[in-house]
Design a protein that fits this description.
Number of helices: 10
Distance between the termini: 27 Å
Number of strands: 12
Bound molecules: NADPH dihydro-nicotinamide-adenine-dinucleotide phosphate, oxalic acid
Radius of gyration: 21 Å
Strand content: 15-25%
Length: 310
């Protein structure tokens, strides 16, 4: 069986080695030089393929995403219908995201930026410390990543709530669901973490109304997608003081353009889409298992519902 690897971000060699170890019969072909006959390609393992590219491979059995998000695939109007699109679910990817979320929640909870400013001014001062159990963190999205981050925050004793499309019952986490649950969820949230997929329903969800529903002084951590944030609304909320700070890992345009106001904004921390990077040695197990399943005539795991968008 033949697999086409296409990514301008992830290096191919670690994937080639890990997949050839896991699947000795696999012919790993690197896009664009090693494609060969497009009709021979069985699997495409991809990150942000050019629009229309997947349509060239007439006999694809599955399109496997190199990342958890699949918006980079579903945005292609020519994505072949009937070919399963499979997202990435991987322990190391989930762990990496939870580390990012815990780091920034602790950063804001313990006021490390305020301390850095004081220390820079040679001031030896203590600031009031909030009891962790009273610190209200809210996670938008309770899937693989949001669910894990919410659980780990609850284990640290934060007052955690989560919001999802369908109702959930998660021990130690206050849950809210659907459009009706959004405002009550926001009203009790001091640190908002976004781990939603980017879909038609979630595009621009962090805009004026959402930000206004948060309590004054709330902070935002967004490692999901830039398209979730209405940038001008966030800048206005930061400048008015309603939102105290934001850490943003993802942007509507990536890399973030040189002149973008987020770069220098005193209340914004930018990270370069690194909240959690795919670790080939770990994630190859998921990809190999899905290829085995398809070869055995079984449905792959993690198939995306195209109508839902995730
Ligand atoms: P999942 O599909 O596992 O979870 C999505 C969650 O969002 C689910 O709980 C789902 O609800 C909820 N949701 C979806 N649509 C809505 C809606 N309209 N209203 C309310 N809740 C909704 O995704 P993952 O956790 O695996 O990944 C989340 C995102 O994280 C990815 O799509 C990607 O964009 C981003 N990501 C970013 C990375 C980075 O480095 N910056 C790395 C990896 C991922 P329900 O449970 O009811 O279905
Ligand atoms: C992903 C990402 O979706 O890295 O995995 O953004």
């Amino acid at each position: 069986m033949n697999l086409l690897y296409l990514s301008s971000v992830d290096k191919s060699e670690p994937w080639r080695e890990a997949l050839e170890r896991a699947l000795p019969d696999l012919d790993f072909r690197l896009w664009p030089d090693e494609i060969g006959d497009p009709a021979e390609i069985d699997y495409a393992l991809v990150w942000k393929p050019p629009p229309g590219e997947m349509r060239r491979y007439a006999n694809l059995k599955a399109i496997l995403s190199l990342g958890a998000g699949v918006d980079h695939l579903l945005c292609d109007p020519d994505l072949p219908a009937g070919v399963p699109v499979v997202r990435l679910i991987d322990r190391a990817l989930t762990q990496g995201m939870s580390e990012y979320v815990l780091y920034w929640v602790l950063h804001y909870h313990r006021r490390f930026a305020d301390y850095a400013r004081l220390v820079a001014a040679r001031q030896w001062t203590n600031l009031p410390q909030t009891d962790t159990r009273l610190r209200r963190v809210g996670v938008l999205g309770l899937g693989e990543l949001g669910g894990d981050a919410a659980r780990k925050l609850a284990q640290l004793d934060f007052a955690v709530a989560g919001w999802s499309r369908s109702p959930k019952d998660l021990p130690g986490i206050e849950t809210f669901a659907g459009r009706d649950g959004l405002v009550p969820f926001l009203e009790r949230t001091e640190i908002l973490v976004c781990l939603l997929p980017l879909t038609a329903e979630t595009e621009g969800i962090i805009g004026r109304e959402t930000l206004a529903a948060l309590p004054t002084g709330a902070v935002l951590i967004n490692p999901a997608r830039g398209g979730h944030v209405v940038e001008d609304d966030l800048l206005a909320a930061l400048d008015s003081g309603h939102i105290a700070a934001a850490t943003l890992d993802v942007f509507r345009t990536e890399p973030l353009p040189a002149g973008h106001p987020f770069w220098d904004h005193p209340k914004v921390t930018v990270t370069p889409h690194m909240a959690s990077l795919t670790v080939p040695d770990s994630a190859a197990g998921w990809v190999a298992e899905n290829i085995r399943r398809v070869e055995q005539g079984r449905a792959p795991l993690g198939v995306v519902d195209r109508a839902r968008g995730y």
